[in-house]
Amino acid sequence: MHFDDRLATVLRHRAAGVRAAKTQFRQLLDLLGERPQAGDPALKAAAYLRLIALAELIPIGERAAIVGDSGWRFRNPELVRWFGEAHPAIAGSALSRAQLMSEEWVELIPRLPIRARGFLRHRNDLPDGAVRVLDQLGVSDRALPLPEPQPAPETIAGEPAEAASLGNLEPLVLRETDENSRDVAKPETSVPGAKPAPVAAPPQASEAPDKSDGIRALVERIESFRKSRGPDPQGGDAPTLPLAGLDETMPRKQLDAFSFGTNSEGRIDWAEPETAPMVIGIDLSQRFDADKAGDDFAAAFVNRQPVRDVAIALRGADAIEGDWIVDAAPRFTRGDGRFYGYVGRFRRAVAPVDDRARRGADRLRQLLHELRTPVNAMQGYAEVIQQQVFGPTPHEYRALAASIAGDSARILAGFDELDRLARLETGDLDLEAGESDFAAIARTQLGQLQTVLGPRVARFDAELTDKPAPLALARNEAEMLGWRVLATLAGATGAGENIVLSLTLDGDQLVLRAQLPAKLARTDNVFASEIRAGGSTLSSGIFGAGFSLRLARAEAHAAGGELARDEDFLVLSLPLLTANDALPSPADAPDRAAG
């Protein structure tokens, strides 16, 4: 067999009913269950998608029965992992009969869900390597271990040994609450009004030893199970309280300011109620650390002088941790003028920075890095086919490859825009500095857009200043910013619309004021709009007009300007390049001078 087209043959047919769906489900399992072989990854991905679609037609119980059937070979780790994330009944059936090699189990088990790992513990045919991995991960059987065998009961002085030893098992004896019942282990002692001991009970009370024996056996099983779990109940699969990790997941609120008072020794003895438990007892009269923070307050305290804008670094709870600025004044008694402390206020030296946005941007950039790899691979393979690098290719396949390459390029462009927005909003990217005339750039771009809007009987009614509008941006940065705003507006412009636009100079600011098209004007937040230019040669990007405008706003912020909505207008303001901001000439820059 030169070409294995069995998977393609199965996928070519559509399941018309439940019976056909079951048949095709079995066929796909039989083909995918073999060990991974070279083949078309897209075809395998389509097979998994077909399994998901067929699962909607087949009840869970019947799917579990099909998966657990021994009539097909189950040697594919990818399929094992896929079934491990399915319904527990299906995952249990799959993991009970999967036949993998030892190194495959070792690599797969840590990637399985915790619930799926528990199913593997019930198998006694796993390789030693798989068992070691399960032990390292703390996966153990959830059933209580059987109690250790007990020796046969013996009689002591004509009484059952069990009854004679009830005194040692007092917490396990079921009896009424009575202070005299403590003498149950001493039948020879009689207390007036006390109930008879179980050893002296009539024959109908002989069920008590049986009940205590059952409770004792259960307690022994529980104790044996607890010891087998180890000293650390939090390891492995041990359950935790529903709110056990709440302190770590909920963000802690930092204080920005609080009032305080000290005693005559400089120790804080009063503070606002929500802050008092964290700061009362701190001695402000002492030098704090090697960086001399707080020395000014200590010196003022010795001289009984007011303090203003004194830096102090507090250590302690997360809410007060950090650098503070203190303003305080000494207090004196009215009668004899004795000093009895300071009263003042703490305020943050620098407002606490919330790095949640930065962490989110980092996660987004890591995700984009992971996504670029497969998209780059698809684009590369498509270009190889389209350019016939390895030999002649039918024109139909070349057309499909060209379409895939174009889609991949658009996806990569979208990734670049997402990455640029994340870096701009977190301050990790600065626009390239330079000098450019934004008025000339806008004039050129509007001329290009007019030719596209003409067939739609739409246009820009633009009034642009005749004066130059220099910006401290490189020309390519200014062109991207201008095109992102103007092309997004043009792409959302409907047939027959006229967009009023003006570019003026207001002091040291450049102001571009453009009327919003009707589509954007109807949205409450233009920066979150998902309007796309359908069927137009102008594209606002794969994420829509709102994302493009948000990216333009981030670029304007990085350039020291602003992009905002003013009723039915979009206003872009940017700082002009002044004589003081002009870049040095090459002759004034030593590293650029020639000779």
UniProtKB/TrEMBL annotation:
Catalyzed reactions: ATP + protein L-histidine = ADP + protein N-phospho-L-histidine
Highest taxon, organism lineage: Bacteria
Write one Gene Ontology MF term. Answer: kinase activity
| Protein name, UniProt field | histidine kinase
Biased region (Low complexity) positions are 192-207
Q: Which Pfam families does the annotation name?
A: HisKA
UniProtKB keywords: Kinase, Transferase
EC class name: transferase
Annotated stretches, region: Disordered: 178-213, 225-245
Leader sequence residues: none
**What EC number(s) does its UniProt record assign?**
2.7.13.3
The Signal transduction histidine kinase dimerisation/phosphoacceptor domain covers: 359-427
| InterPro entries assigned to the protein according to its UniProt record, in alphabetical order | HisK_dim/P_dom, HisK_dim/P_sf
